[in-house]
Amino acid sequence: MRTDQTFNTGIEELVLAVSLELAAATWKVALHDGRREQPAVHTVAEPQAAARLQAVLDLIERHKETWSLPAGARTVVSYEAGQDAFWICRALQARGIECYVVDPASIPVERHKRRAKTDRLDAIKLVINLRAWLRGERDRMHVVHVPSPQDEASRQLMRDRGELQKEVLQHRDRIRKLLATLGCWDEVGHKAFAGRLASNEVKCHDGAPLPPELRERLLRECERLALAEQQLATLEKTRQVSVPAPARKRSDDLARLKGIGEVGASRLALELFWREFSNRRQVGACVGLVPQPYDSGESHVDQGISKQGNRRVRALLIEMAWSWLRYQPGSALTQWFNQRTQGTGPNRRARRIAIVAVARRLAIALWRYLKDGVIPEGAQLKSA
Fold it and tell me: Which residues form the Transposase IS116/IS110/IS902 C-terminal domain (predicted)?
């Protein structure tokens, strides 16, 4: 896919830039060929996704003809990343149209106290930034890396597992709190609790039976809890088989290291290391663990980490960093952490700040381990 422009004859390449401002009911489409002052803006409101996409393609062809553009003129489409994900990008690329998905937070905006914001203005702003980006002004917007359909679909395995675990805990906690209102401190996590509840063996604090309304609600909660537990157990049995072979190999390699479990390794393989990184800075920026300084004039402030990218991976890496300190005491990362926190005493804030740096260094070390086979310095592998 082309991302640059050539100027062999000293004349700028003719490009039809198109931006899409997506909404549930309508799409705003802005088109600009660089030869007029203002872009053309249209609205497409077809109720079906395929028909709405075809309406965009018809607009592109119609403006090529109206503006006397060559039939083979380069067409570039962009839209902001959101709930529509990447299906539009894949559909356009399948039709031979260049398409980019843009990080919405990377688009510069006016800093006035109040500014006008409409879908039309956003579409115009996006198409102007797209033309500037194609000319080489890379600070106008940042392009999101589009995963393959298989990589995107494989993420649902671990994400669904996390949601099911959360749902199980929510049901158990809700049952426990409802019983606590009557002074019943029964063990709701035991599998026999639903049977005891159905046979009226669960009593209030004074031995009185539960109110019928509360008992019926608890029975419904137990049914939902049993369903969530059954789905979670089924997913656990089929999870390893469902993971694609390349991701399974990455997961197995990560799980060989002490301090990294099977679930954490699978999450990293599916959520982070499906991407190809060029250097360690890209790894740190992708997980949002890089520092964001504020250095302007006399102001020198550390704003903390950027918190960009995948929040699930970022939270996982923090947990994994604590586990790494426990199970890899002889590694260089653990020794670095101990040296930085030595003498802080009960200062937990200093340890929490240092563990973020350990998480970033751990992500980079694991990337090098998968890419080049370099085991993190001082780290130990699990016994066969």
Answer: 254-329
